[in-house]
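Below is a filled-in request sheet from our internal design queue. Each sheet records the structural input a requester submitted and the sequence that came back. We keep these sheets so that new team members can see what a complete request looks like end to end.

REQUESTER: design group, bay 2
PRIORITY: normal
MODE: inverse folding
CHAIN LENGTH: 224
BACKBONE (tokenized):
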């Protein structure tokens, strides 16, 4: 797992326990891979609806990624333990960017909502760098286990990282600071102080980065 964001490699592996939530996002069905289960189709539809409704391109389902995701979902269900695929960066090939969300819960909608309410997982789902997805899900004793594997292939050379020229750090002020604070559920003072720096650092470490606590274009792209 890369410790800092780079255009060469990044593995953002994230974990979420599902929450019991009443609300859920609705969206049109999105075609899944051949043999996709209804649960997997639900995750794909919700994920791509979340992106499309924000003007972010939908992710293309790739069977190779589905296979990796299904294998991880089955391993978690078999062990009854939530954990990341330790071999993600080797199981997934031809990647420039790669990431993973894993979770479990009573149904696909509940887990998806939990992902969307967790900043690091939502960042993976809405990441403009990713172009492809593979979702694997298994239901055991009424519990849904899911792995979402994200990829941007190495062969793609154009960048869709949001262009953000500022670097926010301790002492920065202004509307951008307030926006970051709001995104991280902090009091929106507009001053980049110790609490903001610490919150940004935690967010970055959740993505597998060093967590220096500054907001540049890569952190900005994942926050928004």
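RETURNED SEQUENCE:
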């Amino acid at each position: 797992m890369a410790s800092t964001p780079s255009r060469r490699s990044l593995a953002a592996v994230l974990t979420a326990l599902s929450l019991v939530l009443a609300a859920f996002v609705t969206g049109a069905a999105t075609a899944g891979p051949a043999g996709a289960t209804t649960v997997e189709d639900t995750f794909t539809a919700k994920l791509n609806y979340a992106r499309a409704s924000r003007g972010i391109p939908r992710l293309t389902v790739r069977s190779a990624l589905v296979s990796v995701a299904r294998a991880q979902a089955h391993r978690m269900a078999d062990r009854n333990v939530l954990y990341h695929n330790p071999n993600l960066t080797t199981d997934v090939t031809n990647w420039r960017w790669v990431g993973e969300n894993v979770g479990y819960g009573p149904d696909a909608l509940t887990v998806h909502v939990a992902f969307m309410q967790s900043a690091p997982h939502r960042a993976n789902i809405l990441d403009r760098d990713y172009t492809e997805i593979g979702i694997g899900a298994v239901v055991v004793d009424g519990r849904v286990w899911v792995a979402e594997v994200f990829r941007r292939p190495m062969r793609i050379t154009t960048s869709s990282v949001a262009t953000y020229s500022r670097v926010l750090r301790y002492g920065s002020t202004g509307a951008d600071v307030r926006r970051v604070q709001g995104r991280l559920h902090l009091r929106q003072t507009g001053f980049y102080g110790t609490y903001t720096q610490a919150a940004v650092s935690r967010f970055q470490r959740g993505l597998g980065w060093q967590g220096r606590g500054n907001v540049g274009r890569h952190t900005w792209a994942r926050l928004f």
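SHEET NOTES:
- Strands lie at 11-15, 60-61, 95-105, 132-140, 143-153.
- The first strand starts at residue 11 and ends at 15.
FILED BY: M.R.
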